[in-house]
Amino acid sequence: MAEKIFRFIKKNKIGRSLKVRLFIIMFLMGMIPSIFMRAGILENYESRAVEVRTSDVQTQLRIIANHLITYNYLQDSSSEVIGAELEQLSNLYNGRVLIINENLKIMKDTYGISEGKTIISEEVIRCMKGTNTVNYDAVNGFIEITLPIIETISAQMATPEMPEGTEIIKGVMLTSVSTDSIVATMEILNRKALIVEIIMVICIFAIALVLAQILIRPFDRISKAISEVKDGYTNDPISVPDYLETEHIVDAFNSLLGRMKTLDDSRQEFVANVSHELKTPITSVKVLADSLRGQTDIPVEIYREFMEDIAEEIEREDKIINDLLALVKMGKSVAQINISMVNINELTEIILKRLRPIARKKNIEVTLISKREIMAEVDEVKMSLILTNLVENAIKYNREQGKVDVTLDADHQFFTVEVADTGIGIPEESLERIYERFYRVDKSHSKEIGGTGLGLAITRNAILLHRGAIKVESIYGEGSMFTVKIPLIRTLI
Question: For 29-86, what is each residue's pLDDT tens digit?
């Protein structure tokens, strides 16, 4: 049966429900104290009732013990007064009383079955030495009490050996009293406590159910709001400020919603830009081709000029397509990266050697500053792409006779590449957008400078694949500095 219940809970995922867990916690928090309280009350009553019964019996026994000495009962057990008192005590407490003399002989048994017999009991012997004993047998339902019968030496009976006031133990009273009345009272209390506990269980169950429902309600509202966004009914940010936890969830979702909206807007803008960028060279090619087709007897020089223009537009189209493919590849999984140990200093020197001829056309000085030897786990091809794009941009957007400084440095975790130029700089309002695809700071000179507007987007994606970061500092009209920070050791998380 238990296995079936467990299988049912597992199948229906009940145990994973926050509402069910809250209900169980509150139910147990209400039930456990009530169970312990009932057990504590019953136990406290039992111990108190036994203590009171023992005290009452001991008081009665002390009175009778004095009478036993007064009537000299231990020598002559024929006193009817003492017999009546013992019978009354036995009947009152539904028990048995034994009067034992100093020779351990039973002088009186209220049950009338052991008189004249000798009793050897640890409790009786201890009592003969002056130690009272009280034993409560909860299983059999009785209290066993021993009380010494003490005679005090009077002035008439005093001797040098036993001066006046000396107490002598003349015998023992061994009494067993029933606890049936205590047990009966405990059963009544237990039944009443059980009824109260059942009522409490029902109340706690209802309260826990209602509270669990109320406490989980904000999460239901979050779920409903997210479903509305998912189904396309709304794109507005959601707000459920009931708990600090719901605020955190809502803030995270709203951030994700904003991110998705930004990505969607970026995607639409990207599609529009791609369409425009791809259409422009094709339009130019079509215009040039139509011009050639509409003319006859075209000189070879003009024909060659037109064909060169067509080739340039085709080359531009090819570069755009290749850059787009590079962007797509950058967006794929980390498994596409071919990590190896690379000497960053040597790689940078090779790239700068390749780009210096371009820099010389504008009389731009390109300098490499290596602060230390750097060995890092990177994808050499993508690292080459990062360095090439940054240095090439620094050359393209520089002034005549300008400078480009490439600085390499490292600490125990990361290496940094700083590419600083003395070029035209970037306006502050454009710093946030320079990594967008096809975005150009100066659109009027984009054709003269060349490029596709995808270089920095590709560079940033390559850096992110290395779990690195890129930042830019720029003063418009004075120059820019790009700083790339990449881990020395590749760690997959």
Answer: 888 888 888 888 888 888 898 999 999 998 988 898 888 888 888 888 788 888 888 8
Q: First-to-last CA distance in the chain?
A: 44
Question: In 3D, which of 139, 152, 146 has the Cα closest to residue 179?
Answer: 139
**DSSP sequence for 75-133:** T-TT-HHHHHHHHHHHHHTT-EEEEEETTSBEEEETTSSSTT-B---HHHHHHHTT--E
| The one-letter amino acid at 318 | D
- Contact (Cβ atoms closer than 8 angstroms) between residue 474 and residue 431: yes
Please tell me whether residue 368 adopts helix, strand or coil conformation. strand
Residue 358 shares a structural domain with residue 313 = no
Domain count, the chain: 2
- How would you list the strands of the sheet with 365-370, edge to edge? 365-370, 403-410, 414-421, 479-487, 469-475
Query: What is the spatial distance between Cα 3 and Cα 421, in angstroms, rounded to a whole number?
Result: 73
144 near 175, Cβ under 8 Å?
A: yes
Containing structural domain, residue 246: 235-330
Establish if 182 belongs to a structural domain. Answer: no
Residues 282 and 372 in one domain: no
Residue 221 falls inside a structural domain: no
Q: Answer yes or no: is 428 within a domain.
A: yes
Q: Are strands 133-137 and 469-475 parallel, antiparallel or unpaired?
A: unpaired
Contacting residues for 217 by C-beta, under 8 A, at least 6 apart: 242
Cβ(173)–Cβ(97) below 8 Å = yes
Indicate the residue among 284, 312, 330 that finishes a domain: 330
Tracing tokens 């390749």 back to the chain, one arrives at 354
Cβ proximity of 102 and 171 under 8 Å: yes
Report the CATH number at residue 258: 1.10.287.130
**Shared-domain flag, residues 449 and 423:** yes
**pLDDT tens per residue across span 87-140:** 888 888 888 999 988 888 988 888 888 888 888 888 888 888 888 889 998 888
Residues 268 and 382 in one domain: no
Domain holding 346: CATH number?
A: 3.30.565.10
Same domain, 480 and 342: yes
**What is the rounded CA–CA span in Å between residue 319 and residue 187?**
95
- Where in 297-402 does DSSP place strands (E)? 339-343, 365-370, 375-379
